[in-house]
Amino acid sequence: MFSSSLYLCEVKQLFIIVLFFLNALQAFTQQPSHYIFGESEFKGVDIYDIIQDHSNNYWFATDKGLIKHDGYSYLKVECPEMRGFSVFGFEIDAFGDIYCFNLQRQVFRIRDGKMELYYEIPDEMYFHEIILGVDNSNNLIIQTDGIIILSPDKAKVTMLEDGISDSGGIPISFNILPDGSSVTASSSGNLIIQKHGKIDIFNYKNSFPSLGQSSFTFRWVDFKNLPYVLNAHSMELYQYHPESSEFTFVKQLTKTLLGQVFRFYSAGDKLWLAGNEGGIYVYDSDFNPLFNEKPAFSNFFISDVFEDREGNVLLSSFDEGLLVIPNFSLQGISLPMNERITQISSAGNDGIFLATSTGEIYHYSYGGIATRLFRDDKRKPIETMAFNPVNRMLVYSVHGGVNISHWDGKKLTHRKVFAGALKDVAFIDSKTILLAMNNRIERLSLAANNYNLHALDKLDSRAFCVGYNPLKKTVYGGLSNGLQLLFSNGKVEKVKFNGEIVFANSIQFYKGEMYVGTRKHGVLIYSNDHLKRTIPCDGHVRQLEIHNDQLFLLTSSGFYVGDINDGRLVKFNKSSGVVSDVISEFHVANGELYLTNSEFVEHISLEDIFTPSKKIAIHFKEISVNDKATSANFFEHDQSKLRFEFGVSTLRHRENIQYRYKLKGYKNEWQYLSYDENHVVFNALPPGNYTFVVQSKNGEVFGNPIEYSFEINSPYFQKWWFYLLLLISSGIVVYVLAYYRIMQIRQKNVERLSNQRIQTDLFESELKALRSQMNPHFIFNSLNSIQDLVLKEDTEASYDYIVLFADLVRSALNYSNKDFIPIEKEIEFLEVYLSLEKLRFKEEFEYSVDLGPVKDISVPSLLIQPFIENALLHGLIHKTGVKRLDIKFDMTENLVCTIRDNGIGRRKAQEIQERQKGFHESFALEAITKRLDLLNLQSGVNSGSFIINDLYENDQPVGTEVVLTMPYKRLY
Fold first, then answer.
1. Based on the number of CB atoms within 10 Å of its own CB, is 7 exposed (0-12), middle (13-18) or buried (19 or more)?
2. Which end of the chain lies in a sparser environment, N or C, as judged by fewer CB atoms within 10 Å?
3. Which residues of 627-642 are buried (b: 16+ CB within 10 A; e: fewer)?
4. Which secondary structure element, helix H or strand E, spans residue 776, and what is its range?
5. Which is nearest to 322 in space by CA: 47, 599, 676?
């Protein structure tokens, strides 16, 4: 049977090819848009039946046994008691248990993913045909040569042996009716109705006048919750009325299947009729034939039709896998052999034009008939095509350049050919066309018998697309050197976006705005020739169209549909029902969206494009610990490697599915995975309490999350009692060692404290000695100053000097016993001293003290005065003219005091002392150096030092500068 079918198919294909080339009239086959699933997995496998369990896993009854598909892998499920391989006849009960049988009289049950032998039909009840059903009481009903009723878990087994054989016939069809009763048609013309274990018999032959003497006529199907039968003898469809056991004629279906063994299905609100010669006939909800009453998928032997929970219709086959129809609204058009659609264009209300890779143009009517209108002699692909419904002109590329033809609804009338490679077309009006050519943009004017072609000189680069704004009469040119705008006054402006050149691939005018599809910047929207807004998208835009405020975009990353007002784009892919995510061209015409790639053309009504995303249920497939499956929630500390495998079983939404997960107690941030990445591994979790949360994401819609909580126990050495025991034991050891050590340390501390006290006393004594040694030195210098005033007979100055000197001596004696004094007291002391020196030097001496931001600190007492004294004694005393002394404080990381004079400098002062044979090394500087060393030693920080710098101007000494870094203490 199958070899003859293949032979007939080959003859049919040859006949089609010959007819195509001879008559130029081709019926492009229509059928539901679909894709093949499991083609390699089911190669060489005959699928008999399909079903889906309550966890959305798919089960396949095949000649190779029972196969389960969970959305990721295919698993053969076996039963040790099973005789043979082939299984048939799926049925599922309300609890989710699945039943099937084999030809060895064995009935199997699938529960929790495992297959078990459930029942063996007794020899005396066996018939070569077995049919299973589940009634609304969840009883399993087995129809064979008699009826066997198994209550749930076989608590009760009822065998009804009478009624079929006794009626003089054999069972030919079986169905479970909506009220839970079962009805069996026998070859003798009787209906055997079983309800609640009771049998009623009715003769049905009188309801079918055309039945005659034929047997095996019934094909039951439940459609729209009503039972129907098809009379195979006449292909007449009847509705069955259980209350009266009568049949009402509905319609006569196709007669093509007369004489064949056919199968009858209901799925996707459609009736499906499959014969034994390949293909399947489809009828709508009103029993009208679809696809011009031709069989769809004529190259496939369809063995079962099943609608899953997502609305996909699955057609199983022998040796070819599954044909999946995600969206019946999306219709496919089968192309002739070796053809590829390169361009699609509207033909007004007449249909569409299809251009091919072999240089042909077809007119495709909505009745499914394609008429060839044009063939390029060089068989060059037609890369550009556009139709103007106003003047009914079709513009398209050919091997010699550009063709312009007139369409009268039946044929194309050739008008003119222009040289050049056509890339895009824009219609200005019924008589003017803009042509984007490979080297320029041209304006074509149409007249009755005259065609004027005028190049737009200012748009003379290679063009990819062109657009026209009728409101502003401006031309948009997508050129090789960027998007350019040609104004009506002849001015050209290069369009930029954020300072970058814009490269355009597609331009459309819509409702007063120009939409430009670019390679890098998404869609740019211009109003009055000024950028108004943008619509970002992934990848570069290859093609765009706008219809009824809907934006259609073909980009390098896929096909998108969105609203031009909010700019939100939705990817149109396999989840939407498209056969392939690879789209090469599209066009919107007459309320339909047409899509094509190298293998198919699909079209769908614009009203059916958007379907809201649904929540997709997710489940755990397996949880393992240390690579072993587990269902526990408590683990030891060395069981720290956990693997979570999860998934959703979906065919429609695979392209849109993502997962997100987080492990509470470890990382609370969501992590995202693709559909194929359906597992997470944590290699070494520390002890603690955790909750693993995972959920699916279908587009923008999140499914309900699932959770798994568990605890990893701490090792014994991290238990509280272990720490307590360790603490007590350690405490005892430490106490013993500490007691002995304390006794040693106590003795050493006594000795150390004694030594420290002695050392401290020595430091203090030495500092005091230094301060006390400074006082006589200072007093001696002051008395010298008084003596100098007396000798000069300056009585008034001498008196003032003595008063200030007394105050100075009193402060010096008071501060000499203190290590640190407030800086304000130090400044007061310096002011008194400088006042004394001012009396001595009269008006020749000027000084300033700048405390700056320094406050609330204390400094070493009497540390600055010796530097001032040295400046006066060695630098300023020999200075002629104004003698200047400046003291400035600054606080950075340390306290710095800068003392600057405009004296004669250290070198000249030393020369004067040497001539006077009075050279004297300053005792004060030696004392200060030693004092700073003691302070640094006492504090442990080198915070005190000084530097003396000689100041020069034009290589002449102009003074001396002392930079004193001082230790200090905060007062607050």
1. exposed
2. C
3. eeeeeeeebeeebbbb
4. helix 720-791
5. 47
Strand partners, 132: 142
Whole-Å CA distances, 245 to 189, 200, 265, 676: 13, 10, 22, 52
Q: Tell me which amino acid residue 216 is.
A: F
Report which residue type is found at 390.
V
Residue with tokens 């699932």: 706
Which range has the worst mean pLDDT, 1-5, 222-226, 513-517, 849-853? 1-5
User: 554, 578 in Cβ contact below 8 A?
Assistant: no
786 in Cβ contact with 798 (< 8 Å): yes
Q: HEC profile for 242-303?
A: CCCCEEEEEEECCCCCCCCCCEEEEECCEEEEECCCCCEEEECCCCCECHHHCCECCCCCEE
Chain centroid to Cα 102, Å, comes to 47
* Nearest one of 592, 537, 591, 602 to 564, comparing CA atoms: 537
Render pLDDT for 101-160 as a digit per residue (tens, 0 to 9): 999 999 999 999 999 999 999 988 777 778 899 988 899 999 887 788 999 999 888 887
Residue 13: the pLDDT is 41
- What does the alpha-carbon distance between residue 935 and residue 771 come to, in Å, rounded to a whole number? 13
8 A C-beta contact, residue 602 and residue 579: yes
How many other CB atoms sit within 10 Å of the CB of residue 563? Answer: 14
C-alpha to C-alpha distance for 629 and 148, rounded to whole angstroms: 40
Rg of the chain over all Cα atoms, to the nearest angstrom: 52
Give Cα separations from 215 to 44, 211, 426 (angstroms): 34, 8, 66
Q: Is 499 helix (H, G, I), strand (E, B) or coil?
A: coil
Residues 834/868, Cβ–Cβ less than 8 Å: yes
CA-based angle 199:202:208, to the nearest 5? 145
The token pair at 394 is 């079709």
Measure CA 838 to chain center. 83
Other C-beta atoms closer than 10 Å to the C-beta of 331 total 19
Lowest mean pLDDT among 58-67, 412-421, 921-930: 921-930
Q: Counting beta carbons within 10 angstroms of the beta carbon of residue 943, is it exposed (0 to 12), middle (13 to 18) or buried (19 or more)?
A: middle
- The span from the CA of 835 to the CA of 629, in Å, is 96
CB 243 within 8 Å of CB 234: no
Spatial distance between the Cα atoms of 841 and 477, rounded to a whole number of angstroms: 92
For the residues of 704-769, what is the DSSP string, one character each? Answer: PPEEEEEEEPPPGGGSHHHHHHHHHHHHHHHHHHHHHHHHHHHHHHHHHHHHHHHHHHHHHHHHHH
pLDDT digits (tens, 9 = 90+) for 786-816: 777 677 767 776 777 787 788 877 887 788 7
Determine the average pLDDT of the residues in 549-553: 94
Q: Which residue has the tokens 């055997």?
A: 192
> Which two tokens mark 749?
């501390």
Dihedral of the alpha carbons of 296, 298, 299, 305, in degrees to the nearest 10: 60
